[in-house]
């Protein structure tokens, strides 16, 4: 905790709105001393959760130095975002006002909040679990509709309910397992142990299905990456410019113009998509161009989808596994319908032939790469979640393979701990600084 300067007894404050020029600025305060601080700067405490217009003073009791007139909202704990007493000041957003009121709060005993400290307090006080807190961070950072919907579902507890349900089922399984261990002489029917193993295998199967979502949730959260590859002068840079709607890449008839990878992001099907224009793939003695080729091949390995382009009359000898084949310059030459049993999209970036079909295809590809689970279960959004569920599933597999009931029970307990670390109910202290350090100040 020391890394964030976190002290639960402190009263903290932060600007919750942006620093850009605006009409209103919201200063948020939380902590045990909130009521006394509010009395010092406003002279009164409004009714809970009702907006009241108040004068803001440097010292309200002496009515010394009027700072602003603002809407004030009082949120007594535990029915507040953090679970603590807190209040908001909806100020005029002039920098001088924000600075003066902040100084008044410091003089009254509050301190500036660290990044994520409000949400961290909400977690510590049981207002949300760790998975929901990560959803809040993703919601604040959301740039696309896909990211917004995914983050909102997570913040609303979609993943938490799934993991909590698994934990409850594990508790019941472990209870039966403990009965077999504690009462070995009771001649419990063999159906009890068979039922335990069936439930373990069923639960493990559900976890494996959750893990095998094809990283769709992580793609929604982080974005989909398309790498555009092909020989020099295939039209890769022209395709990038057309897809992103702006002249980002230099287009030239001279081969080898693109030497380095050029990344441009846009929104497609409600998802953030990054298109990477790479150097033309060919043998070369030019040291710089050769490095560009090496980087191009690196991006191929990292991409979610590869767009392999070639010019008319020059079909590729080698097709990258899983690549989408795009034949350009259909206006001046023949483009095959298939290469190595893979369909080819024929286009002309010069005349527009096939471009609507290509756009529709790429949109469907993005939807395919980010599709929701067929089971209706919420998608995984972070590598941490995947690792935790994977650990729990491995423990369950080890459990039903055990012949000794005591060893089976220990594996079940390890599975419960793995799920508990996901939601923050056990052993996550070392994770908190990392997770909440990613938040903005004021959240």
Automatic annotation (TrEMBL):
Its main location: cytoplasm. Mg(2+) binds at residues 237, 258. It comes from the Bacteria. PROSITE patterns: G_TRME. Signal peptide: none annotated. Its EC number is 3.6.-.-. GO terms for molecular function: GTP binding; GTPase activity; metal ion binding. Binds 1 potassium ion per subunit. Residues 223-367 form the TrmE-type G domain. Keywords: Cytoplasm, GTP-binding, Hydrolase, Magnesium, Metal-binding, Nucleotide-binding, Potassium, tRNA processing. GTP binds at residues 233-238, 252-258, 277-280, 328-331. Its cofactor is K(+). (6S)-5-formyl-5,6,7,8-tetrahydrofolate binds at residues 28, 88, 127, 443. One of its GO terms (biological process) is tRNA methylation. One of its GO terms (cellular component) is cytoplasm. InterPro entries: G_TrmE (IPR031168), GTP-bd (IPR006073), GTP-bd_TrmE_N (IPR018948), GTPase_MnmE (IPR004520), MnmE_dom2 (IPR027368), MnmE_helical (IPR025867), P-loop_NTPase (IPR027417), Small_GTP-bd (IPR005225). It is found in: Cytoplasm. Homodimer. Heterotetramer of two MnmE and two MnmG subunits. Exhibits a very high intrinsic GTPase hydrolysis rate. Involved in the addition of a carboxymethylaminomethyl (cmnm) group at the wobble position (U34) of certain tRNAs, forming tRNA-cmnm(5)s(2)U34. Belongs to the TRAFAC class TrmE-Era-EngA-EngB-Septin-like GTPase superfamily. TrmE GTPase family. This is tRNA modification GTPase MnmE. The gene is mnmE.
């Amino acid at each position: 905790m020391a890394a964030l300067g976190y002290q639960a007894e402190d009263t903290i404050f932060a600007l919750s709105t942006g620093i850009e020029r605006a009409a209103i600025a919201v200063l948020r305060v939380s902590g045990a001393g909130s009521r006394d601080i509010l009395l010092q700067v406003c002279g009164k405490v409004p009714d809970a959760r009702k907006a009241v217009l108040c004068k803001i003073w440097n010292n309200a009791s002496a009515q010394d130095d009027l700072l602003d007139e603002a809407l004030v909202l009082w949120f007594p704990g535990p029915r507040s975002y953090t679970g603590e007493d807190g209040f908001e000041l909806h100020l005029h957003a002039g920098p001088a006002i924000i600075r003066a009121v902040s100084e008044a709060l410091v003089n009254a005993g509050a301190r500036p909040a660290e990044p994520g400290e409000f949400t961290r307090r909400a977690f510590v006080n049981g207002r949300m679990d760790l998975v929901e807190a990560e959803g809040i961070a993703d919601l604040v950072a959301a740039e696309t509709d896909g990211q917004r919907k995914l983050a909102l579902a997570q913040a609303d507890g979609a993943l938490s309910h799934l993991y909590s349900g698994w934990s409850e089922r594990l508790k019941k399984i472990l209870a039966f397992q403990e009965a077999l261990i504690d009462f070995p002489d009771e001649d419990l029917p063999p159906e009890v142990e068979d039922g335990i193993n069936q439930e373990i295998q069923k639960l493990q199967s559900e976890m494996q299905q959750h893990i095998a979502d094809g990283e769709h949730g992580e793609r929604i959260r982080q974005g989909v990456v398309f790498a555009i590859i092909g020989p020099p002068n295939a039209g890769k840079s022209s395709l990038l410019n057309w897809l992103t709607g702006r002249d980002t890449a230099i287009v030239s008839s001279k081969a080898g113009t693109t030497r380095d990878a050029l990344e441009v992001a846009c929104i497609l099907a409600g998802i953030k998509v990054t298109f990477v224009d790479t150097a033309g793939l060919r043998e070369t003695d030019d040291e710089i161009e050769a490095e560009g080729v090496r980087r191009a091949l690196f991006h191929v390995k990292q991409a979610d989808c590869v767009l392999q382009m070639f010019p008319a009359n020059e079909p590729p000898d080698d097709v990258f596994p899983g690549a989408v084949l795009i034949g350009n310059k259909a206006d001046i030459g023949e483009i095959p319908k298939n290469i190595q049993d893979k369909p080819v999209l024929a286009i002309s970036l010069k005349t527009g032939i096939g471009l609507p079909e290509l756009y529709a295809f790429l949109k469907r590809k993005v939807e395919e790469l980010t599709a929701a689970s067929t089971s209706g279960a919420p998608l995984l959004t972070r590598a941490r979640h995947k690792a935790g569920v994977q650990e729990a599933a491995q423990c369950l597999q080890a459990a039903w393979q055990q012949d000794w009931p005591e060893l089976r029970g220990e594996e079940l307990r390890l599975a419960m701990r793995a799920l508990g670390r996901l939601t923050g109910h056990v052993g996550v202290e070392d994770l908190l600084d990392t997770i909440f350090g990613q938040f903005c100040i004021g959240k």
